[in-house]
Structures are given as structure tokens and as C-alpha cells.
Amino acid sequence: MRATLAVFRREFAGYFATPVATVFIVIFLVLSGALTFTLGGFFARGQADLVPFLGLLPWLLLFLVPALTMRLWAEERRGGTIELLLTLPMTTGQAVLGKFLAAWAFCAVALALTFPLVLTVNWLGAPDNGMIAAGYLGALLLAGAYLAVGAAASALTRNQVIAFVLGVAGCFLFAVAGTGVVSAFLSANLPILAETARIMSLAERFDGFSRGVIAARDLVFFASFIGFWLFLNALILEHRKAD
User: Fold this and answer.
1) How many whole angstroms separate alpha carbon 182 and alpha carbon 198?
2) Is 135:110 a contact under the CB 8 Å cutoff?
3) Tens digits of residue pLDDT in 31-84
4) How far apart, in whole angstroms, are the C-alpha atoms of residue 238 and residue 19?
5) What are the boundaries of each domain within the chain?
6) CA distance 93 to 100
7) What angle do CA 173, 60, 176 make, to 5 degrees?
8) Contact (Cβ atoms closer than 8 angstroms) between residue 64 and residue 150
9) Has residue 140 got a pLDDT over 90?
């Protein structure tokens, strides 16, 4: 646990030692506000809630989170520091968990900085703040799922651009798996996969949280999903270390 915390502190501080933190947070906040009030039709709906913002989050995080994870392992491999990191007195799993938790904490900071949206809807009306809290919990879990996929993609290559593309592609597949178009296509051509795709859909799992429903099955799903991809991340690094 001490080794994991050491990696966490190193990585988390590293975000704020470079322009990465500022650029990521500014882009995220600007897009969140702009898209909520324009594409989300916040004022046209005539309701004081965060449904437009929460509805856009899966697609907003789809591109921003892989941009955050693309450097996690690709940069370590490109700079040759991954060998040093993995020879320290810690397991590969501890290193993977430490980096993941640092990136997840950074995403939590970015989400927390959207608090002006919460203040705005409370000033304009009387929203269900319990539903808003559930939506933020779902957003944090969704970000964690995207981070786990993106981190595994970053471990596959030393090129950050390739890591970004792989991360976006992987997250996109899990995001759209339960959409109407995909479900209709699979039902017509591969009916055996239709239900599996719906179950694995991150966007559909998040939808329950955005409606204020915190279901145990969704919590277990996100925990299992994140755990699987972190395990896969560690396996990839162990394989690379053995080469």
C-alpha cells in the first residue's frame, strides 16, 4: 500500500507540474459549460436540472480521458523510465494502481470544478440535488472505466498518439454498445451478442445514475470493469518486462 501511495503522489503532483492539468481542466470546463447551454438546450428545456450536462458527459469524457491516459505508460516507455519504475521494490500491480488512482483523482478534481453548474440550477429553481449527486457519482465511475481502458491502451505502445487513438476506440466501443443503432444491428445479424453488448454498455450503465438511481448491480459492474482492465494493464506490462 505504501508503494501505491508513493506512485500516486508522484503521478498526481506530476499533473500539476506541467501545463497538462491546466489545459485539460480548462478544455473540460469550457466544453462542459458551452455544450450544456447550447447543444444540451439548457434554457429551451425550461427546467432547472443538470440532465443536459449529464447526458453529454459520456461523450465529452470519451475524448478527454484518453488524452489524459495516453501519457501514463507510453511516456514512461518512450523515455526509458519504465524499466526503472518496475525495478523498484513494488509489484507491477501496485504501480498500475498508483497511476490509475492519481489519474482518477485528477478527474475528480475536474468534475468538482463544474460546481458552478450546480449552483446555477439551484439559483434558477429547486432541482433534485440527490439526483445530481448520483449523477456525479456515476460520472466519476464512468471516468474511472474510461481511465482503465485508456491506461491499458497506453501500456501497449510508446507512441502517445497511437495510445490516444486506441484509448478513444476502446472507450467508444463500450460507450455505444447499448445504443439503439448497435442493438438493432446486433439483434438483426448477431442476436446472441445483442444482450451482451447492452450489458457491457458504459453509457447505459451511467444513464441510471444520471436519473438518480444508484443500483448495486451497476456499482458491481463498474468495479469489475475497472478491475479487469487494470489487471489487463498489469499483464501487458509484465509481458513487456519479460521481453
Assistant:
1) 9
2) no
3) 888 888 887 677 777 777 788 888 889 889 998 999 888 887 776 666 666 656
4) 31
5) 2-242
6) 10
7) 20
8) no
9) yes
CA–CA dist 67, 31 (Å, integer): 15
By CB atoms closer than 10 A (0-12, 13-18, 19+), residue 215 is: exposed
Residue 97 burial (C-beta neighbours within 10 Å; 0-12, 13-18, 19+) = buried
Q: Are 42 and 36 in contact (CB under 8 A)?
A: yes
CA atoms of 78 and 159, how far apart (whole Å): 7
- In percent, the amount of the chain with pLDDT more than 90 equals 29
| Half-sphere exposure (Cβ direction) of 185: Cα atoms closer than 13 Å | 8
Distance CA 21, CA 12 (A): 10
Residue matched to cell numbers 489545459: 23
pTM of the model: 0.90
- What would the grid cell of residue 232 be? 489487463
57 vs 222: CA distance, rounded Å: 16
Distance of alpha carbon 164 from alpha carbon 67, whole angstroms: 6
Give the span between the Cα atoms of 176 and 164, in whole angstroms.
18
CA dist., res. 55 & res. 195, Å (int): 23
